[in-house]
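Quick start: what a row looks like.
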Amino acid sequence: MLMKLAEKIREEVSEAAGSMASKLLNQPLMGKEELKQLIDQYDYQIEQVALSHRDVDVNLAHAIATVCRRLLQDLWDDASEDLKKLIQLACVYYSEEEDDEDGDFDSVIGFDDDAQVLNIVLDQVGRTELQILI
């Protein structure tokens, strides 16, 4: 299931995003608090970068972070290992600045791939009501 997800991301988002997803799905599981901290640190970094880069889509970044936190809050504690891997994928992919050809801070569409990956994860975990419009 997990490797098929990486293929889906490769097909629907980009080759680079699929490669990153495959790498992230093979990482050991992190803890819930560690993932929250990763998201919080990246949010802070985004705010700092946005002060000098007007192209950064702060609203989309915050929407992604909010949904990632929601997944951690709603699903993590009772989740299977595979489900946790999917949630971790969404959280860590978001927090990686150079996750595809268009870095998060390089253009107005920098966070689009992060939202696409999150939406694919949301579809897999049955939480499509949280999907983000791009």
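That is the whole record. Residues 2-130 form one domain. Residues 32-50 form the longest helix (19 residues).
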